[in-house]
Amino acid sequence: MRILVTGGAGFIGSHLCDRLVAEGHDVVCLDNLCTGDLRNIEGLQGDPHFRFVLADATAPINLEVDTVAHLASPASPVDYSRLAVETMLVNSLGTYQALEVARKNGVRFLMASTSEVYGDPLEAPQGEDYHGNVNPVGPRACYDEAKRFAEALISSYQRIYGQQAVILRIFNTFGPRMRREDGRVVPNFILQAIAGEPLTVYGDGTQTRSFCYVDDLVEGIYRALTVDAALGEVINLGNDGEMTILALAEKVKEITGSHSEITYMSLPEDDPQRRQPKLDKARTILKWEPKIGLEDGLRRVVEWFQESPA
Ligand code: UDP
């Protein structure tokens, strides 16, 4: 297959490109590098099955492909606050352009949506039928509402054009290639612990998240790209091992052997209090299961940060 991956130089996108090329597919990786990084795809450059296109996903794209995977978007709260307008545009106009490539080629479209469509959820765990609790004018709205718009646009393409599509709601994911300045909790805590600096817990640390290692996530994306039963479905992908942020801080300290203190800082506005995916649909439709435990995953990221130049 020839697959367009928008955001292919990003954290998750580059791991997906690696996997697709390893499976024998041809990949066109499109990225404007606003949060992506060429170092993430340096192992693929020069491979005849891989082509990098420096472009913004909001511009019209003319390509002949067999599948479109739309992953382009800033994804860290720090990034999408800084790049609020870009975030809104890549998930609205960018989704439209990517959908048009899929429609014109008559091929499958995969959307990297997010658990943020559930906002600060009033239900836990979150199943795909939960409609969410999003503040439309808060600091996270640029990401949450743009992803919700994208889901609505895809649903309209499905109804009007019979577009083949699968929407993945991706929960917290971590792994190598997260940027040092990404701002999300896993790189922050690991880098702070390694440097012997205080671990910055926002709020009282009782808020929860459920962390999925990137290889597990990419396996789920790969299945969603190739399994026919996924078409027309909205599917949560992540790990359902819920934990508090304070427990994560303790775990990172334990794994790194760090004597860093824990310091408490103010909780960002609209920070979700609980987040845990229901994974029944991923398990039955994709026959998928997250396999890599939190400790194992964290150790791999610690090693990666220690080995990769600052
Ligand atoms: N967080 C934290 N310290 C940090 C960064 C994040 O306590 O240095 C908290 C943040 O407030 C949130 C959770 O960790 O409750 C996960 O934040 P992250 O930015 O990783 O992703 P989110 O799930 O909020 O999109």
What does this entry look like structurally?
The protein is α/β, with parallel strands linked by helices and 310 residues long. The chain has a single domain (2-174, 211-240, 277-291), classed as NAD(P)-binding Rossmann-like Domain (Rossmann fold, 3-Layer(aba) Sandwich). 38% of the residues lie in helices and 18% in strands. It contains 9 helices and 13 strands. The chain has helices at 11-22, 77-82, 84-105, 141-161, 185-195, 214-226, 245-256, 280-285, 294-307; strands spanning 2-6, 26-31, 50-54, 67-70, 108-114, 165-170, 173-174, 199-202, 208-210, 212-213, 234-237, 242-244, 262-265. Helix 5 packs parallel to helix 7 (245-256) and helix 7 packs across helix 9. The mean pLDDT is 98. The protein binds uridine-5'-diphosphate. The site of uridine-5'-diphosphate has 15 residues, from helix 5 and strand 8.
Estimate percent helicity. Answer: 25-40%
Series of H and E elements? EHEEEHHEHEEHEEEHEEHEHH
What hetero molecules are in the model?
Answer: uridine-5'-diphosphate
Tell me which CATH architecture applies here. Answer: 3-Layer(aba) Sandwich
The residue-averaged pLDDT reads 98
CATH superfamily: NAD(P)-binding Rossmann-like Domain
Radius of gyration: 18 Å
Number of helices: 9
Number of strands: 13
Tertiary shape = globular
N/C terminus separation? 36 Å
Residue fraction in strands = 15-25%
Low-confidence stretches: none
Spatial strand sequence of the major β-sheet = 3-2-1-4-5-6-11
Biggest sheet features: 7 strands, parallel
What is the domain total for the residues? Answer: 1
Quaternary class: single chain
Question: What is the fold named in CATH at topology level?
Answer: Rossmann fold
Broad structural category: alpha/beta
